[in-house]
Amino acid sequence: MDPNLITAILFATVVAGTPLIIVALGLLVNERAGVLNLGSEGMMAMGAVFAFAITHHTGNPWIGALAGIAAGMAISLVFGFLTLTLQANQVATGLALAIFGVGLSAFIGKPYEAVALQAVPPVRIPFIADIPVIGEALYNQQLMVYISWALFWAVLWFLYRSRAGLVLRAVGESPASAHAIGHPVILIRYLAVLFGGAMAGLGGAFLSVFYTPMWVEGMVAGRGWIALALVVFATWRPFRVLVGAYLFGGVMITQLFIQGSGLQIDFPSQFLSSLPYWATIIVLVLISRNPTLIRLNSPASLGKPYRPDA
Fold first, then answer.
1. d(CA 4, CA 1)
2. Which of 14, 26, 252, 255 could bridge across to 275 with cysteines, CB 3.0–4.6 Å?
3. Which parts of the chain span the membrane according to its record (predicted)?
């Protein structure tokens, strides 16, 4: 196979997997604290539209990215208030959040549908980027790709090498025990929810400002749901999230390369476009066949409401 084609596929796979890594890491911390937030699709959409709007008006993509983070945190705070303070059902609230965020982002984004932003140039790392095949694919990327790697290592260190991460995991396993020894369970869960919202907003900002610098209604295109499935696929482990994100990104890119290659195939283009979602369903079905694996790795209090004793 042509080395240039391999480089192009690897490059596109890394870019396609980046928003999945960012959002899934946020959801991972969320769920490690025992909170199940199914609203990632809506949070990504809100982050995408606010990041695009602010970037358009300021001309600065990093201010736009901060706006996307703020939008994701704001809408996740609503989720936190409803589920942690008012004790609403987490599944129903998350689904409502997803629908609300997608609809509101479409309304807010109407004036920006015919607007395009200036592309953000990549950051080339000297010498390393000169490595054949993988150099251009991995080390001539936008800064957000490198930030996603830094976030991965930060979350990995936080969960398994810091006292705060140990406390967060304890809250996810047994909030009553964590409360009994003096930890503020609700505050910790609020912070986890805000982090998850921030990462979802940043993932949305990546899509509208860095990946395809334009706003189109529905541009999140199910990536929030894929990120949710990715956390389960990874059995709540950060390294598996990284690998899984690039696998799903590879599936997304493969169908685009097949459609653009001009190959004569018997499958309709709509089937190829649905490949990432078929892959998500198949992965979830395969994982669900082994409930022991899920029970061993999932937080024991995931999705269960908790109200500290007065």
1. 9
2. 255
3. 6-28, 35-56, 62-84, 91-108, 143-160, 187-209, 215-234, 241-258, 270-287
